Amino acid sequence: MADLLAGAYLAKGTIGNVGTPGAPVATFSLVVVPSQHSVTGTVVITQAVNGPDSHIVVQVKGRIYSTGIGNYTQVVSLQGQYVQSFPPPAIGSFLADFNAHLAIDNEWNGKGGFSYYQHQIENVPVAAAKNLKEQLA
Fold this sequence. Notes:
By secondary structure, the chain is mainly beta. The chain has one domain (8-130). The chain contains 1 helix and 8 strands. Strand 7 (110-116) and strand 8 form a beta hairpin. The longest helix is centred in the last third of the chain and has 5 residues, at 132-136. The chain is globular, with a radius of gyration of 16 Å. The two termini are 26 Å apart.
């Protein structure tokens, strides 16, 4: 049972065009357990717009696998659900799906995309948090 969390580490970073006005950006904080191919954590989607899509918090789980080829040495998939409110003047909310896919190197930099209620973001940068290099060393 002690080997269950062997090699576990924390991964933090962003998915999206950080610094582009109005672009949605997903910030992730994930516990990665490579020996179990599992990823769990939180994704926060922010966008500089008014309304229900400006700040979304999603609890996610997913899978991580090594590719063994090219610059992108790992692939990650994430899934989760969150409460999405209807835009005014409608009243109410529902469970909406969140999905993400990443092709990354060992330092969590690469390309990816994510989707959430009526939004599909593809082929955007994945960037590790600045202090992640020290954490992985």
